[in-house]
Amino acid sequence: MLDPSTIVATPAPGRACGTCTLCCKVYDVPDVQSVSGEWCRHTRAGRGCGIHETRPNHCRAFFCLWMTEGWLGPEWKPEKAKMVLAMEPGSYHLAVQVDPGQANAWKRDPYYGQLKRWAAASIEKGRHVLVHVNRNTTVILPDRDVPLGEFAPGDRLVANPRMGPAGLTADVERVRAA
Ligand code: SF4
Ligand code: SF4
């Protein structure tokens, strides 16, 4: 699961969170004792943060991909899509953090088809599309989706590319922390 404190981003021109607050539900935010899957107690539905002036630094620094990438259409706004997109620093995996209240949102169109296309376009560079529902992770590959279960802190994703009948794919597994 993505740690939002690792992301420092700048909104694209014209983008604003508006009534969206989904990142205040889907991630752990230890500074305010907020755990993924539950709304941060400071969230004001449809209005934003109830402690806006004093919110933790990483709440200030974090913006999802819908905020930073102006080419993503309105259907990808997290409050509509029911998922928050972010790029994992370092690995550049695409982290899709789904609202656990609508855990199958990523399987709907047009989302699933686009996630598959991104998976196919990224695999050559060793980057993957990871769907997280809280800590449960599914890897979307061009030819199949692989549920890997719940990742504990320190667990790692290991992916070994291989050629399949339809082109490049990978064997993926979760490796437990030592
Ligand atoms: S999920 Fe994105 S659009 Fe929604 S409140 Fe967070 S940063 Fe803003
Ligand atoms: S402190 Fe504010 S910005 Fe940070 S998670 Fe809670 S409601 Fe969201």
Give a summary of the structure in a few sentences.
The protein is α+β, with helices and mostly antiparallel strands and 178 residues long. It has helices at residues 23-26, 57-61, 65-68, 78-81, 111-122, and strands at residues 43-44, 48-49, 83-87, 94-98, 129-133, 136-140, 145-150, 156-164, 167-175. Helix content is 16%, strand content 27%.
Question: What is the topological layout?
Answer:
Elements: H1 23-26, E1 43-44, E2 48-49, H2 57-61, H3 65-68, H4 78-81, E3 83-87, E4 94-98, H5 111-122, E5 129-133, E6 136-140, E7 145-150, E8 156-164, E9 167-175
Parallel strand pairs: 4-5
Antiparallel strand pairs: 1-2, 3-4, 5-6, 6-7, 8-9
Bound molecules: iron/sulfur cluster (2 copies).
One iron/sulfur cluster (SF4) is lined by residues 24, 29, 32, 34, 40, 42-43, 49, 51, 55-56, 59.
Explain what the structure shows:
With 178 residues, this protein is α+β, with helices and mostly antiparallel strands. The protein has one domain. It is 16% helix and 27% strand. The protein has five helices and nine strands; from the N terminus they run H-E-E-H-H-H-E-E-H-E-E-E-E-E. The strands form three sheets. Strands 3-4-5-6-7 form a five-stranded mixed β-sheet. Strand 3 and strand 4 form a beta hairpin. The radius of gyration is 16 Å and the shape is globular. One iron/sulfur cluster binds next to loops.
- The arrangement of helices and strands along the chain is HEEHHHEEHEEEEE
Give the helix/strand class. Answer: alpha+beta
Spatial order of strands in the largest sheet: 3-4-5-6-7
Main pleated sheet: 5 strands, mixed
Which spans of ≥5 residues are poorly predicted at pLDDT below 50? none
